[in-house]
Amino acid sequence: MNIHEYQAKALLKSYGAPVSDGRPVMKAEDAKTAAGEMDGPLWVVKAQIHAGGRGKGSFKEADAGDKGGVRLTKSVEEAAEEAKKMLGRTLVTHQTGPAGKQVNRVYIEDGSGIETEMYLALLVDRQTSRIGFVVSTEGGMDIEEVAENTPEKILNFTVDPATGYQAYHGRRVAFALGLTGAQVKQCVSLMGILYKAFTEKDMEMLEINPLIVTDKGDLKVLDAKVSFDGNAIYRHQDIAALRDETEEDPKELAASKYDLNYIALEGEIGCMVNGAGLAMATMDIIKLYGAEPANFLDVGGGATKEKVTEAFKIITSDPNVKGILVNIFGGIMRCDVIAEGVVAAVKEVGLKVPLVVRLEGTNVEEGKAIINNSDVDVIAADDLKDGAEKIVKAVKG
Ligand code: GDP
Ligand code: MN
Question: Where does ATP bind (predicted)?
Answer without folding.
Answer: 46, 53-55, 109, 112, 117
